[in-house]
Amino acid sequence: MDRAAAARALGVAPTASAAEVKKAYHARAREHHPDKGGDAEAFKRAKAAYDVLTGAAGGVGPGASPVAHPPRPPAPPRPTRATLTVSLAELCTGCVKRVRFERTRFPKGCAVRPCAACAGRGVAVRVVRLGPHVQQHIQSPCAACQGTGRTADGGAREAAQVDVAVPRGARHGHVVQIRGEGEQRAGEARAADLLVEVRQAKDPEWTREGDDLRIAKSLTLGEALLGTQLRLDVPGREGGPLHARVEGVVRHGERRRIRGLGVRPPRRPAGDVVVELAVQMPSELSEAQRAALAEAFPPPEASSPAPTHTLERAEP
C-alpha cells in the first residue's frame, strides 16, 4: 500500500498532518473494531494505512513499527560528579585542594563511527503495549554511546586530579563547577563539566549553624558564680586563640556570644561565636566551703512540721 492508497483508505489527503491522520484512524478503528462487532478486514486496512502514513511522516503511533529517524543533535554531556572533604577551618578561610576521580578520555584523531546499538541515531526505542492493537514507542538516550550516536576506539578510563578552589565561607554541600574536566564522549572535543561537592569533616569541638560557630564549655560552680576567662581556638581565626571573659552569674545551659567572629563569607554578614556553658556542681563540699556558702547564702529557717524523709541520690 502506497501513501496515496493509504490516504484514500483513511479518507484524508496525502499531505494530511499527523494529527489529522491520527484522528481519521481512530474514527475508522472505533467503527470497524472486531471486538465491537465491526469488520475485521476493514480494521486491518485502516491500521495498515495508518502505519504507512505515520511511517512516511517519521512518527509512531498505535500499532506502528519503529521507523528510521534522522540523527538528532546529541544532548549536552551530563556533568561528572566528585566529592571533596575539607575541615571546618578550611571552609571558614577558603582553600585550594586537589580532588581525585576517574573519567573516560579518547585520544586525539581516533576513528569515529556510528554506534551499532542505535544505528547512529543516539536514541533507543522501547515498545510498550497499552492494550489490544495499541502500542507506545518510548525513546531514551542510547546507553552505549550516551546519546551521541557515535563510538570510537581507544577510549579508556583514567585517574584524574584537579585543583578545586573552595571559596571562603562555603557551606557543607557547596558545589564547585569546573568546565571541561569531566567525562568525554566519542567524537566530541570538549569534555563534560566536573561538579565537585564540598563536604565538611566533623570537628571534634566546634559545630556550624548557618554562619555561627558553636562550642560547649564547662564551668565549675565557683567560675559560674565569680566569673572566669575562656580560651577559644576558633576555626580559621588568624592570630592565635581567642581569650574571652565570662562575667556575671552563669546559669547552667546559658549561651554567651561574641558577635562578628564566626564565619565571614564575602557577601553575607559575619556570624557569631556562640559558647554554651554547662555548670558542673561539686560532688562534695568541705567544712570550710559549707561554712563560706552558709555565710554567703544563709539557709532558710527550718520549716514546720519537721521532715520525716530524706531524699537520696538516685542512679541515672
Could you list some keywords that capture this structure?
alpha+beta, Helix Hairpins, HSP40/DNAj peptide-binding domain, 3 domains, 6 helices, 20% helix
Quick gist of this model?
This protein is of the alpha+beta class.
In whole angstroms, the N-to-C terminal distance is 89 Å
> Based on CA inertia axes, which overall geometry fits?
elongated
Which structural class best describes the helix and strand composition? alpha+beta
How much helical structure, as a percent, in the residues?
A: 10-25%
- Global Rg: 38 Å
SSE string? HHHEHEEEEEEEEEEHEEEEH
CATH class of the largest domain: Mainly Beta
Biggest sheet descriptor: 4 strands, mixed
CATH superfamily of the largest domain: Urease metallochaperone UreE, N-terminal domain
Biggest sheet: strand arrangement = 10-11-15-14
Overall mean pLDDT stands at 85
CATH fold assignment of the largest domain: HSP40/DNAj peptide-binding domain
What is the total number of structural domains? Answer: 3
Say how many strands there are. 15
Please count the helical segments.
6
Oligomeric category: single chain
What is the second-level CATH architecture of the largest domain? Sandwich
- Unreliable stretches, pLDDT < 50, 5 or more residues? 56-71
Q: DSSP strand (E) fraction?
A: 25-35%
